[in-house]
Amino acid sequence: MNLALKTDNSHYEKGSIRNAVSFALNSAASHARQRFEHYFSTCKNFEKIYNMTSEKFMEQFDAGSLGDEQDYFDWYAAVRGVNLWRERYEILSGVSV
């Protein structure tokens, strides 16, 4: 996939634009990595507490076989966070300018 930047109306040099866009992408990728690591760590903590993998937890959560403890909803959100931020990190870190 190719992405194009429209710079016709800009008075900035292409090198400056490239540097700014590269900086923004790198910053966003770094932020995504940090968010991924946070949610991953949260999942690992729940896995230790409940002696269950996040995959097994999601199966049981989706099947409705767990209770309504707040931890379960927090764990569910953390698993979703891992998936979302991993995807964003992989996409952003794969983009080059």
What does this structure look like?
With 97 residues, the protein is mainly α. Helices cover 73% and strands 0% of the residues. The protein contains 3 helices and no strands. It has helices spanning 14-50, 54-63, 70-93.
Keywords:
97 residues, mainly alpha, elongated
Overall pLDDT score: 93
Biggest sheet layout: none
Instruction: State the shape.
Output: elongated
- Give unreliable regions as ranges: none
Q: Tell me the series of helices and strands, N- to C-terminal.
A: HHH
Distance between the termini: 13 Å
Number of strands: 0
Helix content: over 70%
The total count of helices amounts to 3
The gist of it:
The protein is 73% helix and 0% strand. By secondary structure, the chain is an all-alpha fold. The chain has a domain at 35-93.
Topology:
Blueprint lengths: L13 H37 L3 H10 L6 H24 L4
Helix pairs in contact: 1-3, 2-3
